[in-house]
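Saturday, quiet lab. Running sequence design on the structure tokens for the scaffold JK sent over.
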């Protein structure tokens, strides 16, 4: 979906390379893009005619099992990160698609299967090293450059290039996870069950409903789950789901957390055309469910789909609303419609479907949006970026931007312009 050609690509191996690249871009007034994991729906990791700072070779990681912390470089994906931390029976909240980069997800807030139990990825960030627009390497934490640390946790890539991230880790063994799927014609009944099921969910349970056609399989309404508490308790918690109706598929069972993190990778193969539109629900009303069902029965391609995520609440909500730049701690459900196809020729029909679907859902939406799910600014509009933060936090972020990046060197992101 994104076809851009940088004039230069700096393949960095450490902070010194990043400093040199930022200084070069600033000195020559170059358009600057920063690529880490590359899992970016808006295409901001690349540019036409400018300089791409490519961090994908920076994959250093060191686990401290005694203090339950880890220091990681931004080129890592969550699959690579989880493999190392799980060797010590430890984990932190990461993305639910294993090919997602750790840095981009964290800087936008970052939820996943462990968020309801342990908070967002950004809530578990203890410190970060950042190369600023002035070419300075600074360390940020709760006690050092606190203002920048606040902005990094939700403000995206607006303030510099992160070269190292330190996270808090939590003990985690096997989880109860998998997919229970029904015919897509049962969407209304299954989503009403999902609403009731999630309304009583403990913090250890994260889940999501997806309406899609499985690879080489039927069109389904599926509920994916990951329970991160004791396995015996997970059996009890998930029994109502597994005994509801007549499922086509029940793949739920004990598995390593690294397996749970790869459960839906197959829905997002590399190289596909992707167009996303997202909102938070005020509530999942019967009318909202009817609208979802109607649009999912007229998907333009088998891969186009809708996701309703229940991965907020719990520990996310218990953290003070002003503690970080992330602004949606009171949200319950995230809604995401994805126009996806393999052939470029089919992309426009998928884009049109996603836009129309999203528009039809707006009467039930809160007006807020998750910054990591925003597309290109030209398509979304600047008001949607403001909606990701709310007026008060957006103004604070704009003042922070003026301090750390007054010329808006880092503008290929969900851009917060420096306060005038």
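Result came back. Writing it out in full:
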């Amino acid at each position: 979906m994104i076809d851009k050609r940088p004039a230069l690509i700096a393949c960095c191996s450490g902070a010194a390379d990043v400093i040199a690249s930022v200084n070069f871009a600033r000195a020559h007034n170059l358009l600057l893009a920063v690529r880490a994991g590359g899992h970016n729906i808006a295409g901001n990791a690349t540019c036409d005619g400018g300089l791409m700072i490519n961090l994908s070779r920076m994959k250093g990681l060191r686990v401290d099992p005694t203090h339950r912390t880890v220091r990681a470089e931004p080129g890592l994906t969550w699959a690579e990160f989880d493999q190392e931390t799980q060797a010590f029976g430890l984990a932190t909240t990461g993305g639910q698609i294993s090919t997602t980069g750790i840095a981009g997800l964290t800087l936008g807030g970052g939820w996943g299967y462990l968020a309801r139990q342990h908070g967002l990825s950004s809530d578990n960030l203890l410190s970060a090293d950042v190369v600023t627009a002035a070419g300075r390497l600074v360390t940020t934490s709760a006690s050092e450059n606190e203002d920048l640390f606040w902005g990094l946790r939700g403000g995206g890539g607006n303030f510099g290039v992160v070269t190292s991230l330190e996270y808090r880790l939590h003990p985690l063994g096997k989880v109860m996870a998998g997919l229970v799927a029904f015919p897509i014609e049962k969407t209304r009944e299954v989503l009403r069950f999902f609403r009731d099921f999630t309304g009583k969910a403990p913090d250890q349970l994260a889940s999501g409903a997806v309406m899609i056609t499985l690879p080489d399989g039927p069109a389904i309404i599926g509920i994916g789950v990951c329970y991160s508490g004791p396995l015996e308790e997970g059996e009890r918690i998930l029994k109502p789901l597994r005994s509801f109706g007549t499922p086509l598929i029940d793949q739920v069972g004990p598995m390593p957390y690294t397996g749970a993190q790869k459960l839906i990778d197959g829905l997002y193969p590399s190289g596909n055309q992707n167009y996303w539109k997202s909102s938070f629900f005020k509530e999942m009303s019967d009318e909202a469910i009817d609208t979802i069902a109607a649009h999912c029965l007229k998907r333009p391609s088998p891969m186009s789909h809708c996701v309703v995520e229940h991965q907020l609440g719990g520990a996310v909500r218990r953290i003070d609303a002003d503690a970080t730049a992330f602004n949606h701690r009171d949200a319950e459900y995230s809604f995401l419609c994805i126009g996806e196809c393999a052939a470029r020729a089919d992309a426009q029909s998928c884009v049109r479907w996603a836009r129309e679907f999203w528009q039809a859902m707006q009467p039930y939406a809160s007006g807020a949006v998750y910054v990591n799910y925003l597309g290109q600014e030209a398509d979304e509009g600047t008001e949607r970026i403001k909606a990701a933060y709310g007026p008060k936090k957006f103004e604070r972020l704009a003042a922070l931007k003026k301090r750390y990046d007054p010329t808006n060197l880092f503008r290929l992101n969900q851009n917060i312009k420096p306060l005038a």
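Notes for JK: The mean pLDDT is 96. The chain is about 30% helix and 25% strand. Ask whether to fix the surface positions before the next round.
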